[in-house]
Amino acid sequence: MTTEATTATNKTLGINEIKEYLPHRYPMLLVDRVVDYEIGKTITAIKNVTANEEFFNGHFPHKPVMPGVLMIEALAQTAAILSFMTMNVKPDENSVVYFVGIDNARFKRPVEPGDQLKMDIEILRTSRGIWKYKAVASVDGKVAVEAELMCTIRANEKAGQ
Question: What's the pLDDT tens digit per position in 102-114?
Fold first, then answer.
């Protein structure tokens, strides 16, 4: 096997590796697997949406739909993984990722139990500690939500107190 082929097959992250890059845990961890990435450029991840998700109890019992804000959060978590990988660091208990903006968010189709949300993130730019991404989540090749996300990574000021 060539080095290129080996490298190509290792561009995935399982749940335990994802947890090294994100502080989120159940029920707020919304990335199940990273299926591809190019450091400094793009990442593709998936969220398996199951009927067991706690939010479906109230959103909505008669027609379960994944809340749009959680789809945006799943995209942001995916973007955070790419940012940490790009910086070649793993966050510690003092690291916090904050939204600084969400632009042009459009919701195109509902996401229901049994769907697999595929999240594609592209870094558009980074400047003065602000990261801007193009984010698209789709189900079966159909766009569910798209947005431009802006985030920053900061040290938690209260962590040392």
Answer: 999 999 999 999 9
Catalytic residue, chosen from 59, 109, 118, 134, is: 59
CATH number, domain with residue 122: 3.10.129.10
Residue 160 lies in a domain: no
H or E element that contains 124: strand 116-127
Dihedral of CA atoms 68, 50, 84, 126 in degrees, nearest 10, equals -20
In a domain, 37, yes or no: yes
Which range of residues forms the domain containing residue 43?
Answer: 3-155
Residue 5 predicted with pLDDT over 60: no
Partners of 129 in beta bridges: none
The verdict on whether 62 is a catalytic residue reads no
Q: Which two tokens stand for residue 81?
A: 């993984």
Q: What is the pTM of this model?
A: 0.90
Number of domain units in the chain: 1
